[in-house]
Amino acid sequence: MRFSALGDVAMLSPVVREYALQHAEDSVTVLSVPFCAPLFEDIAPNVSFLGRDVKTQYRGVMGLYRLFKELHAMHFDRIVDAHDVLRTKVLRQFFRLRGYEVRVIDKHRSERRRLTAEPGKKVLRQLPTSFENYAEAMGIPGFPDVPAVPDVPDVPGFPVSPDIPDTPVSPGGGLIGVAPFAAHEGKIYPTDKMEKVVELLSHSGRVVLFGGKGKEEDIMRAWAQKYNNVELARDVISGGALAAELELMRGLDVMLSMDSANMHLASLVGTRVVSVWGATHPYAGFLGWGQRMEDCVQKDLPCRPCSIYGSKPCRYGDFRCLNSITPEEIVRAVLSVIKELRS
Questions:
Q1: Residue 274 pairs with which residues in a beta bridge?
Q2: pLDDT digits (tens, 9 = 90+) for 181-207
Q3: Mean pLDDT throughout 162-190?
Q4: In angstroms, how far apart are the furthest CA atoms of the chain?
Q5: CA atoms within 13 A on the CB side of 222
Q6: What's residue 240's pLDDT?
Q7: Three-class HEC string of the chain
Q8: 295-315 pLDDT tens trace
Q9: pTM of the model as a whole
Q10: Is 236:206 a contact under the CB 8 Å cutoff?
C-alpha cells in the first residue's frame, strides 16, 4: 500500500519489480491511486495493480473499512504498508484484527530529525534510501544493488558556446527535459533564474518543459513563446497521460529537475537526471533510482537541509540555498552530462 506522493510511489516500482523477480511463485498486488497505474505496468508477470481513490470513494474510517472488506475478499497472505500515514494505519489495523501478517516501512524519523536540526546540531550523513526502506519492509535482503543509468548511443560532439565558457553545446542537437517546479517552495529554483537556464539550454537544442498547472503552466508557456526550441511536454504528447509522458522522458538526453516527482519518473525510464536541491538534501534518501550524487546541484550551507520534504518556511526568509546557485552552474552541469554520455 502506497497512495502518495507520485515520486514516492514511483520509487516503489523498482523494489516491487525486484521482489517479483526474486519470488516468481508469489503474486504481488500494488494498491495505490489509479493515476499511478503506468508505473507498474509490465514490470513483472506476477505484478498487478489495484487503483483506489482513498480521498473520495473511500473517505473516512467507514470508507476505509469498505476498502478493507474488498481487499479481505481477495485473500492476501501478507500486507506491506509502504506509506505509514493515518489512512494506512487504519487499514493495517483492520488487517491485523483479522489475523493478517502486516509489515510496515521504517521511515527513520528520528534520524531525519537529526538531519534537519538547527545549524550546529544537525548530523549530516546519508540515511537509508526509500528504496532500501521499501525493500526492508518487503523482505528483500541486501537490496538495492542500484544499476547505473544506461548510456545513450554515441553521437557527434559539441562546439563551444560563447555565452558559457568551456561549456559544450550543440545547436539543435540535444533533447533536454526541464521540470522547473515542485510541490513546495523550498524545492523550487527561483523562476527568474530558471528562465535564464531555459534560455541558455535552448541554444543547445530542443527543450521540453514538464509539469506545472495553472500559473506554473502560464509561466512555462511564456518561456516557450519567448525562446526558440522550447515547448511544453503536454503539447508534444496526446492527452497528457502519465504513460505518454514516461515515453517522452525515455527519449531525452538528460532531464533537469528539482527534488520532485519528475526526477523519479525520468529515473524509472533510464534517463540521466541533473537535480537541483535547496531546502532538502539527497542524504534524506530521495535521490532518483540509479542517479548519481555528482549530478546533484546544491550548496553546502550550515542551514541545509532544513526540511525533509521542502515544506518548511526559510528561517532567513530568502531561500539562500537556492538563490546562491547561478543559472550558469546548472547549465554547465546539464551540458557536461550530455558531453559525458556522448563522448
A1: 256
A2: 999 999 999 999 999 999 999 998 899
A3: 73
A4: 68
A5: 12
A6: 56
A7: CCCCCHHHHHHHHHHHHHHHHHCCCCCEEEEECHHHHHHHCCCCCCEEEEECCCCCCCCHHHHHHHHHHHHHCCCCCEEEECCCCHHHHHHHHHHHHCCCEEEECCCCHHHHHHHCCCCCCCCCCCCCCHHHHHHHHHCCCCCCCCCCCCCCCCCCCCCECCCCCCCECCCCCEEEEEECCCCCHHHCCCHHHHHHHHHHHHCCEEEEECCCCCHHHHHHHHHHHHCCCEEEHHHHCCCCCHHHHHHHHHCCCEEEEECCHHHHHHHHCCCCEEEECCCCCHHHCCCCCCCCHHHEECCCCCCCCCCCCCCCCCCCCCCHHHHCCCHHHHHHHHHHHHHHHHC
A8: 999 999 999 999 999 999 999
A9: 0.91
A10: no
**In sequence order, which residues have a C-beta less than 8 Å from that of residue 245 and are 6 or more positions away?**
210, 233, 237, 265
Q: Is residue 241 very low, low, confident or very high in pLDDT (cuts 50, 70, 90)? A: confident
* pLDDT above 80 (res 99): yes
Computed over every residue of the chain, the mean pLDDT equals: 90
Q: What is the mean pLDDT of residues 129-158?
A: 67
Q: How far apart are CA 11 and CA 144, in angstroms?
A: 12
Contact 257, 284 (CB under 8 A): no
Q: Is pLDDT of 101 > 90?
A: yes
Specify the residue for cell string 526550441.
229
